[in-house]
Each structure stands twice: as C-alpha cells, then as structure tokens.
Amino acid sequence: MTQAAPQNKTLHLIIHGRVQGVFFRDSMRREAQRLDVSGWVRNRSDGAVEAVVQGEAAAVDALVLWAHRGPEYAQVKQVDVEPATGTYIGFNRL
C-alpha cells in the first residue's frame, strides 16, 4: 500500500487588530520557517498585516491557527482567509 503525497495549499491572509509594531511579521516568518511553509508577509497601510502562505496543508493550517493568536503583544481581532495561487520558495518578510 502506498501513501498519498501530502497535499499543498496556498492561502491569502489578512490579519486585523493590533498587529503592527508588535513583531507580527518577523514572528510569523519564524513560525513559517519552523513549519516549513513558504510565502511572504507585509504590513498594510490600513494597519492590517497581509500574508500569502504555501506548503503542506497541515502546516499551512497550523500557521493560520498561529495567525489567530500572533506573537505575545498582538491583539488579533479577525483573520480573513482566501485561497490563493502562485509558487513561493522560502518565506519573506516585506
């Protein structure tokens, strides 16, 4: 019996709340690297943080759960999640 290959998933996230000035981007980059998830993360002019994440479905789901908490001083109010497309290598903090 052969095991099925892990399914990859790509998601676009917009994280709302007190998420800028609390090391959210760098913390998310480190968590993504720990989970072997690729993509990018950046601050938006409206005060939110935006990210595209890609990797094994379970790892991407774990990163989305982490985004609902964020780092210690973040106060996440809402995370918008939509499917995304593209191919990403590594993880960039923009």
Short synopsis of the structure:
The chain is of the alpha+beta class.
CATH architecture: 2-Layer Sandwich
Largest sheet: 5 strands, mixed
Mean pLDDT: 93
The CATH first-level class comes to Alpha Beta
Structural class, by secondary structure, is alpha+beta
* Cα-to-Cα separation, first versus last residue: 44 Å
**Number of H- or I-type helical stretches:** 2
Sequence of secondary-structure elements: EHEEHEE
Shape: elongated
Give the C-alpha Rg.
Answer: 13 Å
Strand content: 35-45%
Could you outline the blueprint of secondary structure elements for this entry?
Layout: E1 8-18, H1 24-35, E2 38-43, E3 49-56, H2 57-69, E4 75-83, E5 91-93
Parallel strand pairs: 2-5
Antiparallel strand pairs: 1-3, 1-4, 2-3
Helix pairs in contact: 1-2
Account of the 3D structure:
The protein has about 90 residues and is an alpha+beta fold. It has one domain: Alpha-Beta Plaits (2-Layer Sandwich). Helix content is about 25%, strand content about 40%. It has two helices and five strands; from the N terminus they run E-H-E-E-H-E-E. It has a five-stranded mixed sheet with strand order 4-1-3-2-5, covered by helices on one side. Helix 1 packs antiparallel against helix 2. It is elongated. The mean pLDDT is about 95.
